[in-house]
Design goal:
heterodimer, A: alpha+beta, Mth169, Chain: A, three-stranded antiparallel sheet, 3 strands, B: alpha/beta
Chain lengths: ~80, ~230
């Protein structure tokens, strides 16, 4: 069994109005040095196989076809063996 | 003239399926079937509509999970064989996720859910969704969405323009296409596009909500009437 941890980030060429709005909150909070806030997603799940290559392939497919939209997002993941 | 048969797909979370049924059947007198998303039979429909709503709760990204509903395999095959498909609002988002149309819909630039009437200028009068509608006609149609900010790369935008795939743009009541009449930040004021073959239309505004004279809005019906007229006559 593997634990997969996926991080999805928005491409830098795509505007992130949500990040901008959150940054206004930072300013109201009195934080003066916060710049370029961008909001992404963190997703974790288990992969029920003992074979690392199979796990990597399946996670890659999941990220590429469903969890992220390649037009606007990039993804990265880690796989950690768990018992 | 043959009475056309529309199929309205119902996903979990669809909420304009009944509005669409009402507009097409009760107002326009076409045959309409609901198509449950777990089915894979399009019931010999001539036109498939993916209605608005919050399919699968808009989880992950709008339209991302609905795109994998069993019926979408049949819809994609139907579209690839030249079948007519219209995606309205969330239906448009599903068409983009399914790869039947290019681009993505991001959160409105204002971050607000926008629900109001807008004006649309028709940019393509050659496709079957608009052919025959008078060229100067500006549509008054409601929008209701939080994620309608259409985005494509500059390169793809040029491709859309070169192939005449942009069908509707947000405009002023007099047809001006300036930024102030863009309700959501969409690239080039884009409100609706078609695929290269001209048989798949995706649009954020709601034609089904402007079909009935009782609501004093009937501009939306022109799109359905034009399509029926162009494919059956």
């Amino acid at each position: 069994m593997y634990k997969a941890k996926v991080v999805i980030t928005r491409r830098s060429s795509i505007l992130d109005p949500q990040g901008k709005a959150v940054e206004i909150g930072a300013m109201h909070l009195g934080l003066k040095n916060i710049r370029n806030t961008r909001i992404g997603k963190y997703i974790e799940f288990d992969v029920d196989t003992t074979d690392r290559t199979t796990a990597e392939k399946e996670v890659n497919n999941y990220c590429d076809k469903l969890l992220s939209n390649p037009i606007m997002e990039d993804f990265d993941f880690t796989l950690e063996e768990v018992k | 003239m043959k009475k056309p048969k529309f199929g309205v797909v119902v996903f979990p979370g669809s909420n304009c399926d009944n509005d669409t049924f009402y507009a097409l059947h009760k107002v326009l007198d076409y045959n309409v079937n609901f198509l449950w998303h777990k089915e894979n039979d399009l019931k010999k429909s001539d036109v498939i509509i993916l209605p608005d709503g919050f399919s699968y709760g808009d989880y992950l990204r709008t339209g991302a999970i609905a795109r994998f509903s069993p019926i979408m395999n049949a819809v994609i095959e139907f579209a690839n064989n030249g079948g007519y498909v219209i995606g309205i609002c969330n239906g448009f988002q599903i068409l983009l996720e399914a790869g039947l149309l290019p681009g993505v819909l991001l959160k409105n630039i204002s971050l607000k859910f926008v629900c109001k009437d807008v004006y649309l200028s028709v940019e393509n009068h050659e496709c079957n969704f608009t052919k025959g509608i008078e060229t100067e006609k500006l549509f008054r149609i409601p929008i209701a969405h939080g994620e309608g900010n259409y985005f494509v790369s500059d390169e793809k935008l040029k491709e859309l323009e070169d192939n005449n795939q942009i069908v509707f743009k947000y405009s002023s009541p007099y047809g001006s296409l300036s930024e102030e009449f863009n309700p959501n930040g969409s690239v080039a004021n884009i409100a609706g596009i078609i695929n290269k073959n001209g048989n798949v239309l995706g649009m954020m505004p709601h034609p089904e909500r402007s079909c009935s004279p009782v609501l004093s809005r009937t501009d939306g019906s022109l799109i359905f009437k034009a399509l029926v007229n162009n494919i059956f006559n």
